[in-house]
Specification:
The chain is mostly helical and 93 residues long. It has helices spanning 24-29, 31-34, 65-72, 88-92, and strands at 42-43, 75-76. Strand 1 (42-43), helix 3 (65-72) and strand 2 form a beta-alpha-beta unit. The chain is extended and about 45 Å long.
């Protein structure tokens, strides 16, 4: 696997997290000082057709993917504006 790209089957990816770094405990201990800690988990592409049969139902329609994605994740990376500034109409699509 190359950073940001999965070329092999998603089933073969090891999603085990590495050991916590030295500052993790310190950052998490700040939870009580700043209120509840919110963690958002998502992926860079919610419309990944190759996830059909893995994360999405095998026969899901493309227009249904965001709905299925949102049942499992609470965030999605929104990076397209890094490359181009879209019009309001394009974003609303």
């Amino acid at each position: 696997m190359e950073f940001g790209h999965v070329y092999e089957s998603l089933n073969t990816v090891d999603f085990t997290l590495p050991p916590d770094g030295e500052f993790t405990a310190q950052a998490l201990s700040n939870e009580t000082k700043a209120g509840a800690l919110n963690i958002y988990i998502g992926a860079p592409k919610w419309g990944q057709k190759s996830w059909k049969g893995l994360i999405y139902p095998k026969l899901a329609l493309d227009k249904e993917l965001l709905g299925f994605y949102s049942q499992n994740f609470n965030a999605v990376e929104f990076g397209p504006t890094f490359y181009l500034i879209y019009s309001e109409d394009e974003i609303s699509k």
